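Quick one:
INPUT:
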């Protein structure tokens, strides 16, 4: 039951509309980057892949827009660990430790 993801530019979040609820990943633009701030999935929809779908969409968006990614969201941080192919999109200066 995967539905379309939309970019709600007014609220600066990627959204999946689920029945009466919304799963979303908020973002902000900072200098040349896109910062992924917070992922929210309603309890009834947790564990069904919506958070990962939002993260994948966010990285695809960053790739298309040629924007390095800054990760603030712990969920997206875990997504990056599980999907090494997106690491090239990270802002290396920001994520250098």
């Amino acid at each position: 039951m995967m539905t379309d993801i939309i970019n709600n530019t007014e609220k600066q979040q990627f959204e999946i509309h689920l029945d009466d609820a919304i799963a979303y990943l908020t973002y902000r633009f900072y200098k040349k980057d896109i910062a992924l701030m917070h992922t929210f999935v309603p309890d009834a929809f947790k564990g069904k892949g919506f958070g990962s779908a939002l993260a994948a969409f966010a990285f695809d968006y960053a790739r298309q827009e040629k924007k390095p990614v800054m990760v603030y969201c712990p969920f997206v941080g875990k997504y990056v660990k599980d999907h090494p192919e997106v690491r090239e999109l990270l802002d290396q200066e920001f994520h250098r430790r």
